[in-house]
Design brief:
The structure holds two protein chains of two kinds. By secondary structure, chain A is an alpha/beta fold. Chain A has a domain of 91 residues: Beta Polymerase, domain 2. Chain A is built from three helices and seven strands. In chain A, strand 4 and strand 5 form a beta hairpin. The radius of gyration of chain A is 16 Å and the shape is elongated. By secondary structure, chain B is an alpha+beta fold. Classes of the chains: A alpha/beta, B alpha+beta. At the A-B interface, strand 3, strand 4 and helix 3 of A face helix 8, strand 6, strand 7, strand 8 and helix 16 of B.
């Protein structure tokens, strides 16, 4: 692991659980309250790029995995934030990182996760489509289905 | 000065794919721009969960018709990341060769389109003429002009025929000569220079803040390239990453020309290596163990990202796909505002957007949650019919909203 990486894990070790180190890939769980602080450190201090976020529906809720890429070493830092199945809500990092704007809109569209503090949270892919209503999120298992015409 | 809004799309002769741009102008200057997506959706992420790992690779190959090797490349990397699979050396060289030839033909295609957008059709006809021999090489190597189906987990599915090497060298020589000519023309031609220099500038700060990648970021002075940063196969090869400082359309054009020359050099190194490196080209993987893996590859347009989570069965539990255009298209907010409308089109096209890559992830299933629905054509027609109906009736369409104020 690079010096920057060791320093990062040393600084935030109290705020992480379930840390998994693989070659050039690091996965760890964090709490929603710490997300903005950790994302700020990764993006602004360490100079990582936000590649994408992966939202997944698992048996006990929804989880969002942020993929921060450190391009100088080819390493991925992947903080994972969990939220419940009903009224899922996560803090938004879009005010800090412009690139997260579309990423969060896509996750809101497909999974219905509301991002608190997002400047313009509306659907991305099914916006204005007659086949998908406002509360119809297509990647959820129990989908609030729009009546097919 | 009077303000008005100009709708561009969803179906427009200058957009290769269906996309809607809502451009607000004051006089001739663009003051704001919004984009609406959702005219193409095919459900690849969800379909992939119903296919086996080997089938997934063929599925993701169909996401894009132009950079059709980048998605299998990244998906195979993600699967190999879960299992830590070693790839035989010959397999690695074949992968690099296919990837670089694809970069050449994709960049040539964009150069032609860019020439067409600015009314410089000579460039379009030249570059598409040089693209044809590259496609013929693909047909000889893989049997297909576009979807090569070369990739497997742990290597490639087909060997490279060493007898083809003498036929490929002249094409690479021709490409290098012609690209040097186009680079010289871009340098000397007053028309190209005055039309593209200083147009649609994306600053380095904006490129970093919008998380841009690939040629879009490199033309703005951000030194990132997955081929070098992630290593893997490309550790076998010597090549330079081309970075230009200005961030305008001219730099993006020159960068792509120089990248073609660099790709020709990489392809030559592969051809030199093929006779020396024999043996196996596929390390057969029978089982993907439970876990999660990240794979990426530098596609012609930027970084392709695949995340795969496996539960130990033969299918992925979650397969996330991120195409480069998804990160690059939102940079229009930074690069298009404040420039004349006539420059906005070439600026929008300069990131080489691939809209069908951007919108790939909607789930389409029937009422009982049982089977995948295959009437996507009907869905598309329904959406257009609804649009027409609302134009005639009282409901508001995107185009109505434009003419509202």
């Amino acid at each position: 692991m690079s010096d920057k990486g060791t320093e990062f894990f040393e600084k935030f070790k109290d705020k992480m659980t379930k840390v998994i180190h693989k070659p050039r890939r690091h996965y760890f769980n964090i709490k929603n309250e710490d997300l903005i602080e950790i994302a700020d450190y990764l993006f602004n201090t360490m100079g990582c790029r936000l590649s994408i976020c992966t939202a997944t529906e698992v048996y006990d809720g929804l989880e969002v995995l942020y993929h921060f890429s450190d391009d100088s070493t080819g390493t991925y830092y992947n903080p994972r934030v969990k939220t419940g199945l009903t009224n899922p809500e996560i803090n938004s990092i879009a005010p800090m990182i412009n690139g997260a704007n579309w990423i969060e809109r896509e996750m809101y569209d497909l999974f219905g996760i509301k991002f608190k503090g997002h400047p313009d949270l509306k659907k991305l892919l099914t916006y204005n489509s007659p086949h998908f209503g406002e509360d119809d999120h297509p990647m959820r298992f129990k989908r609030n289905r729009t009546q097919e015409k | 000065m009077s303000k008005c809004r100009i709708p561009l799309g969803p179906f427009h002769p200058l957009l290769e794919e269906a996309e809607f741009f809502d451009i607000k102008v004051e006089g001739e200057k663009v003051i704001d721009i919004e984009m609406e997506t959702g005219w193409m959706h095919r459900g690849h992420e969800k379909i992939s969960e119903t296919k086996s790992f080997t089938q997934s690779i063929y599925l993701v190959e169909r996401i894009c018709g132009i950079c059709s090797t980048s998605h299998p490349f990244a998906a195979a990397h993600a699967m190999e990341d879960i299992n830590n699979v070693e790839i035989p050396e010959r397999g690695q060289y074949i992968r690099i060769f296919i990837g670089e030839m694809e970069r050449i033909h994709s960049h040539l295609l964009w150069l032609g389109l860019a020439g067409h957008f600015i009314g410089y059709d000579t460039l379009w006809m030249w570059t598409w003429k040089y693209r044809e021999p590259v496609l013929q090489i693909f047909e000889k190597v893989s049997g297909n002009r576009n979807h090569y189906a070369m990739f497997r987990v742990g290597g490639v599915g087909r060997d490279f025929d060493n007898a083809l090497i003498p036929e490929i060298h002249p094409v690479l020589d021709m490409l290098e000569k012609k690209m040097l000519m186009i680079a010289g023309a871009a340098e000397d031609d007053p028309v190209l220079r005055s039309r593209l220099k200083g147009v649609g500038v994306l600053t380095k700060e904006d490129a970093i803040n919008y998380c841009a990648n690939g040629p879009t970021a490199r033309a703005s002075g951000v030194d990132i390239d997955v081929r070098r940063d992630d290593g893997l196969e490309y550790d076998l090869i010597n090549f330079d990453v081309i970075v230009l400082p200005n961030g305008d359309v001219y730099d993006k054009l020159v960068l792509r020309v120089l990248e073609i020359i660099e790709s020709v050099k990489i392809a030559r190194q592969c051809l030199d290596a093929f006779p020396k490196v024999g043996g196996e080209y596929l390390n057969k993987v029978k089982h993907i163990s439970p876990g999660e893996g990240i794979g990426r590859y530098e596609a012609p347009r930027g970084e392709v990202f695949h995340y795969i989570r496996s539960d130990g069965s033969n299918r992925p539990l979650r397969h996330k796909v991120r195409a480069p255009s998804f990160s690059n298209i939102p940079t229009y907010k930074a690069s298009c505002v404040g420039i004349p409308l006539a420059d906005a089109l070439i600026t929008l096209a300069s990131v080489d957007p691939c809209y069908c890559c951007t919108e790939r992830s909607i789930r389409v299933i029937d009422k009982n949650n049982q089977r995948l629905q295959h009437n996507l054509l009907t869905m598309s027609r329904d959406k257009t019919a609804a649009l027409k109906k609302t134009i005639a009736g009282n409901e508001k369409t995107p185009i109505d909203r434009v003419f509202e104020d």
